[in-house]
Amino acid sequence: MFESLQERLGSILNGLTGRGALSEADVSAALREVRRALLEADVALEVVRSFTDKVREKAVGAAVLKSIKPGQMVVKIVHDELVAMLGEEGVAIDLNAPAPVVIMMVGLQGSGKTTTTAKIARRLGERQGKKVLMASLDTRRPAAQEQLRQLGEQVKVATLPIIAGQSPVDIAGRAVQAAKLGGHDVVILDTAGRTHIDEPLMVEMADIRKVSAPHEILLVADSLTGQDAVNLARSFDERVGITGLVLTRMDGDGRGGAALSMRAVTGKPIKLIGTGEKMDALEEFHPKRIADRILGMGDIVSLVEKAAETIDAEQAAAMAKKMQSGKFDLNDLAQQLQQMSKMGGMGGLMGMMPGMGKMKDQLAAAGLDDRMFKRQLAIISSMTRAERANPDLLKHSRKKRIAAGSGTDAAEINKLLKMHRGMADMMKAMGGKGKGGGMMRGLM
Ligand code: GDP
C-alpha cells in the first residue's frame, strides 16, 4: 500500500530539498506536484484541495530554521498535515454503555464486514474478556449467516441461532433480546451489504438502527476503493450516522487514497484497520505511522524536529545573555510568552525548571495563566516599538489606545506591566548573583 504515492512525493520533495532558498513560487510548483500525486493515489479532489491549501499556508509563512534546507521544512509540513488529516491516535471501540452494548457493522458487499465482525468479536473476547454475541442480518445472501456461524466457531464466539425467513429488523431485535437474556456484554450486528449504495439499503440500515439502538456504528470500507470512497462514507454517515471507520485490505497494494479521504470527509475516526484474511489481522490505526509510510521520509522529519529544538535553545541562550545584562524589555517578554506556550504552557515550563515554585506563584498572583498568553501577546503587539523597549512611556492615553487595539482594558495592561517589572527585577537579581540566565537557563 502507498508505494507509488510514496515514490511520487519522495521525488517531488527531494527536488525541493536540494535548493537553498524557498520562494512562494517554489512552494506552489511543489504543491502542484503533490496535488497530482495525491489525486493519482485516489485521494478525493475536495480533500486534496483543502490539504494543499493548508500546506501552502504553513509553508509560505513558515520561519525556516537555520540548520535545515527550506525544502526539508516543506517535507515536515506535508508530513504533519498528513497526520492531521488522518486524525487522532488510536480511538478504541467505545463500550461505555449499559450492556449489552450494540455494535452495528455497515458497508458494501465484499468490503470485509463479516470477516471484520468476527475479528472484532475475537479481540473483545480475548483482550477485554467480553462476552460477545454476533448476529448476521444478511438475509439476501443465503450463505452469509452460515459464514458468520462458521467464523464464530473458529474464533470461539457465540452466534445467534439462524431462524429461516426472519427479516433483518426482526433478527436485530431478537439478537439484542438474546444478548440481554444470555448476559452478553456486547452484541455485534453484521448487516447486509449491496454492491452499491441504494435507497432500500439505507432504509434497511435506518430501521435496524431504530430497533437496536447501537452505541457504535462502524463503516467497514475497502481501502482499495477509489474515488467512490467519499460518496460511500458521506452517504452512510448522512443516512445512518456512523461513529467510526474500519479500513480493510490495508495489506493490499492499492493506492491508499480512500484512507485519507474518508476520515477527512466524515470527520469520524478510523478505529481499526484490517491487514489480512486471518482472524488476527486487525490492528489499531496509527496516523503517524501511516503518514511516515506514505511519505517515506521519516529521517527528514526527525531532522527538522531536532532543528526546531535547537533553534529554541539558541533563542533561549540569547535571551539568557540579555537577562544577565539586566535588560529585559517587552519585546523579550513577548518572545518568552510565545516560547512558553510552545513548550506546553506554564505547567510544562515550570516543570522543567527546578526551584521555580516561587516564581510560579508570583506569576499566578500576577494573573498569568495559559489562557492569558494570547491576550498578553495581543497587548504587546498593539504597542509601538518605542513603548516595548521602554515601558515607562506607557501613560494613561497610550494605555487607552493599546487597550482598544488589543481588545483588552487598562487593568489588564497594568497587570502585564506589573508582571514584566517583577520578572525583570528578579532576573536582574538572579543574574547579579552569577547564576546566569535564570529562567531560560533552566530550559537548556
Ligand atoms: P462482506 O461481504 O463485507 O461481509 O465481506 P467478507 O467479510 O465476506 O470479506 C470478503 C473477502 O475479503 C473475504 O475473502 C475476506 O477474507 C477478505 N478480507 C476481509 N478483510 C480483509 C483484509 O483486511 N485483508 C485482506 N487481504 N482480505 C480481507
Automatic annotation (TrEMBL):
It catalyses: GTP + H2O = GDP + phosphate + H(+). GTP binds at residues 107-114, 190-194, 248-251. It comes from the Bacteria. It is a peripheral membrane protein. It is found in: Cell inner membrane; Cytoplasm. Keywords: Cytoplasm, GTP-binding, Hydrolase, Nucleotide-binding, Ribonucleoprotein, RNA-binding, Signal recognition particle. Transmembrane segments: none annotated. It is an enzyme of class 3 (hydrolase). Residues 269-282 form the SRP54-type proteins GTP-binding domain. Its main location: membrane. Its EC number is 3.6.5.4. Belongs to the GTP-binding SRP family. SRP54 subfamily. Part of the signal recognition particle protein translocation system, which is composed of SRP and FtsY. SRP is a ribonucleoprotein composed of Ffh and a 4.5S RNA molecule. Involved in targeting and insertion of nascent membrane proteins into the cytoplasmic membrane. Binds to the hydrophobic signal sequence of the ribosome-nascent chain (RNC) as it emerges from the ribosomes. The SRP-RNC complex is then targeted to the cytoplasmic membrane where it interacts with the SRP receptor FtsY. Interaction with FtsY leads to the transfer of the RNC complex to the Sec translocase for insertion into the membrane, the hydrolysis of GTP by both Ffh and FtsY, and the dissociation of the SRP-FtsY complex into the individual components. Composed of three domains: the N-terminal N domain, which is responsible for interactions with the ribosome, the central G domain, which binds GTP, and the C-terminal M domain, which binds the RNA and the signal sequence of the RNC. This is Signal recognition particle protein. It comes from Aquamicrobium soli. The chain holds residues 1 to 444 of 527 of the full protein.
